[in-house]
Specification:
The strands form 2 sheets. A 7-stranded mixed sheet has the order 3-2-1-4-5-9-8. A two-stranded antiparallel ribbon has the order 6-7. The chain has a single domain, classed as 3-Layer(aba) Sandwich (Rossmann fold). The radius of gyration is 17 Å and the shape is globular. The mean pLDDT is about 90. It is α/β, with parallel strands linked by helices and about 210 residues long.
Length: about 210
């Protein structure tokens, strides 16, 4: 098994280098997807600077965190591929921009663990490398609507490990169809979409119904 070592220290999450406006918009989608599910307790894998937990608490959502780095002050220190929890311990288990920090086969093991400890839902976001052109139109009575037109892609780019990401959606060998097929072997997919404010982040919402 690959050594799941710490890739970055907490200085990586300094506001000036980490918190862009685009990333804030992605965090909005994190909170929106979780609150829709009305969970009593949530587990977040790889909390980074802890923003999701802090903001979720403001809206009455209880979140516990798991990370291998004690320096990030997670509630539980441990590996994503061998979580120290019983089956179905949490209503929702989530991981935002985290699984790509593991080699692909390890990320599938971590996702299987997320499914195992979830009672109902799993919510994740992953980097989607395919370039899209963003358009926004205003519809009277409905407001602004955002849509994307994918850039024609004849040959996908080979992903090279950059010290953090081992893989990204729509890099060579990691087409979206493969990701969906691999991640739905144990759980059903409700929806997937790219964040309108940060298209690099693609969200997935999964549900356990029918897979118990």
């Amino acid at each position: 098994m690959t050594d799941l070592s710490i890739q970055v220290d907490k200085r990586h999450y300094a506001f000036s280098r980490y918190m862009s406006k685009a990333r804030w918009s992605s965090i909005w989608h994190q909170l929106d997807e979780i609150q829709i599910l009305a969970p009593e307790i949530v587990l977040e894998i790889g909390p980074g600077p802890g923003l999701f937990k802090t903001l979720a608490a403001t809206f009455g959502i209880t979140v516990e965190t798991l990370d291998i780095d004690p320096g990030l002050n997670p509630d539980h220190v441990g590996s994503a591929t061998a979580m120290p929890f019983a089956d179905a311990s949490y209503d929702v288990v989530c991981a935002f921009q985290m699984l790509e920090h593991l080699p692909y086969e390890e990320s599938l093991r971590a996702f299987a663990e997320m499914v195992r400890v979830s009672r109902r839902h799993v919510v994740i976001s992953l980097p989607d490398a395919r370039t899209v052109w963003r358009y926004e139109i205003h519809i009277p009575k409905f407001g602004p609507r955002v849509f994307f037109i994918p850039k024609p892609q004849l040959n996908s780019t080979v992903h090279e490990f950059d010290g953090q990401h081992y893989w990204e959606i729509n890099k060579r060998g990691y087409r979206l169809a493969r990701i969906i097929a691999d991640f739905t072997k144990q759980i059903g997919l409700i929806k997937t979409y790219r964040s309108p404010g940060y298209p690099f982040h693609r969200f997935f919402v999964f549900e356990r119904n029918g897979f118990d």
